[in-house]
Write a structure and sequence with these properties.
The protein is mainly β. The protein has two domains: about 35-225, no CATH class; about 240-275, no CATH class. About 10% of the residues lie in helices and about 55% in strands. The protein has three helices and 14 strands. It has helices at about 5-10, 240-245, 265-275; strands spanning about 15, 20, 35-50, 65, 75-80, 80-95, 100-110, 115-130, 135-160, 165-190, 195-205, 215-225, 250, 265. The strands form three sheets. Strands 3, 4, 5, 6, 7, 8, 9, 10, 11 and 12 form a ten-stranded antiparallel beta sheet that branches. Strands 1-2 form a two-stranded antiparallel sheet. Strands 13-14 form a two-stranded antiparallel ribbon. The protein is elongated and about 70 Å long. The chain starts with 5 loop residues before the first helix and ends with a helix. The chain binds calcium ion (2 copies). One calcium ion binds next to helix 2.
């Protein structure tokens, strides 16, 4: 399932003399440090257009609008002999780790008629709450895929008292040529609320030179790791001490070496790393 090395990134973490995590083996109740987020709300739209034009395009679009996120939006129609199909769906998992997955596709089959068009979109914000009341280190991992005429983007922001602050983001847009993009980052985040924003679109058109099918997909995961594992290597060792020393002084929010998130990397952070060696 995790084709981009989650298990390898986690490995086994030893803290305070206890074997704390053995996620790759899957046994013993699993868990890791925590599941970083829980969903406290969602707003947005998930909708599709499956249009099927007649020869003279006199048939207008047929829109399926599923405002209640969590429902699958699906349009599948034939009209005037043409055929278009679009679908967008998403799922959330909060078992061993927090996961979000979104898929959209569009097909327009010219063999069944002229000028078929289909489109699928997602525009949503998921409101997340950290499950811990103290700063925690979170490993973010994602994979983006797109083909045809498609784009997909995610953005994670911290909801501060007066503003939203970017934590991490990535996007992928393609024209015809399929692409896959994977990424990972380790961030130290304060307790509180966050927003996961996702926007994606895909379309297909059989009446022109555009491809008659397309897709986008986003798989996004977040999990807690050892707070002192500054570089996300799976161990707390000299590499983490070096990372703390390299970042010494005032730092911006979410800096990996700022364990207590007081916007400074100093002796308190170094002490915290040494305590979890
Ligand atoms: Ca480390
Ligand atoms: Ca600090």
């Amino acid at each position: 399932m995790f084709g981009f090395g989650i298990a390898g990134a986690i490995g086994t973490v030893v803290v305070l003399g206890l074997v704390a995590v053995g996620r790759a083996g899957g046994g013993g109740g699993g868990g890791g440090w925590c599941v970083p987020f829980e969903v406290v709300g969602a707003t947005g739209e998930l909708w599709t257009i499956g249009v099927v034009g007649s020869q003279n395009q006199s048939d207008g679009p047929d829109i399926t609008d599923a405002n209640a996120l969590g429902l699958q939006a699906d349009a599948d129609m034939t009209n005037g002999g043409s055929f278009g199909r679009a679908v967008s769906t998403y799922s959330l998992g909060t078992g061993d780790l927090f996961g979000y997955s979104n898929f959209g596709s569009a097909q327009a089959d010219a063999t069944k008629g002229p000028s078929a068009f289909a489109r699928s979109d997602v525009l949503g914000t998921w409101h997340l709450q950290t499950t811990a009341s103290v700063p925690q280190r979170v490993r973010l991992m994602w994979q983006l895929e797109a083909a045809g005429i498609a784009s997909i983007q995610w953005t994670l922001r911290h909801a501060g008292a007066s503003q939203l602050t970017l934590v991490a983001e990535d996007s992928l847009s393609v024209y015809i040529t399929p692409e896959t993009r994977t990424g990972a980052t380790t961030v130290m985040i304060p307790a509180g609320q966050f927003q996961l924003f996702v926007v994606g679109t895909v379309q297909a058109n059989s009446g022109f030179t555009n491809p008659d099918e397309g897709m986008y997909r986003l798989d996004w995961y977040a999990l807690c790791i050892a707070p002192a594992d500054v570089d996300g290597s799976g161990d707390v060792d000299g590499g983490d001490v070096a990372a703390v020393l390299a970042a010494w002084g005032p730092v911006p929010a979410f800096t990996a070496a700022d364990l207590n998130q007081d916007l400074a990397v100093d002796g308190m952070d170094l002490t915290a790393v040494l305590a979890e060696w």
